[in-house]
Write a structure and sequence with these properties.
9 helices, single chain, mainly alpha, 0% strand, 211 residues
Length: 211
């Protein structure tokens, strides 16, 4: 029996205002989720604050109580999706060891991408719309995430050089992220099993650890 991808609760980034109440947190989450869905479908530049508010069931002025601009919303959920990926990797590393570690990392990353399809789609396509300072920070966090994967792969394949490992890791992550580049008709659980299997095989071949 296959497992359904587990939704990930995204950790708000530094651009998200502090939570003052459970209601306020719920409204912010609705804004972030609605913005991600709209931007994934129409693109960042084609979505307005008024549209985001309408999709979230909040009047336009209400959106500005939580976020001062569309770029702030974008930054909040992009920070969140990168942090979710890093947390997912850390959780696997902390709870798994031995030959199954890399496969568990692949599976968790695939779960995160499937469960947060809209967020990852916008992250891959529209991150360049962030203000320069925040874009640099987001890219820095992304590099740290990749470094964590390289570190784990290096433990399995110590003979490979850093450039080889980086090439393999980037290729495997790109394979997983390809879920967001087209409309796949497979149910989520089948997509999880299929993509995880392909990405795990690619990773094993890339680092010379074929079964």
């Amino acid at each position: 029996m296959t497992a359904t991808p587990t939704p990930v609760t995204l950790v708000p980034g530094n651009s998200t205002p502090a939570t003052k109440s459970a209601r306020g947190a719920e409204r912010r989450q609705r804004i972030l989720s609605s913005a991600a869905d709209l931007m994934a479908e129409h693109g960042y530049s084609s979505v307005s604050m008024a549209q985001i508010g309408a999709a979230a069931g909040i009047v336009g002025s209400g959106v500005y109580r939580h976020f001062d601009s569309k770029a702030t919303i974008l930054g909040a959920f992009l920070d969140g999706v990168v942090e979710a990926m890093r947390m997912g990797t850390r959780e696997v590393v902390a709870t798994t060891s031995g030959p199954g570690l890399l496969e568990a990392m692949v599976r968790r990353q695939t779960e995160i991408v499937i469960a947060n399809h809209s967020l990852v789609t916008v992250y891959l396509r529209d991150a360049g719309n962030l203000p320069p300072k925040q874009l640099r920070e987001t890219r820095r966090q992304q590099r740290r995430f990749v470094e964590e994967w390289i570190e784990q792969c290096a433990l399995v394949a110590p003979a490979l050089g850093e450039l080889q490992l980086r090439t393999v890791v980037q290729a495997v992550l790109a394979l997983i992220n390809s879920i967001c580049t087209y409309d796949n008709p497979l149910p989520g659980n089948e997509l999880l099993e299929s993509v995880s299997a392909m990405a795990s095989a690619a990773l094993r071949v890339g680092i010379g650890a074929e079964k």
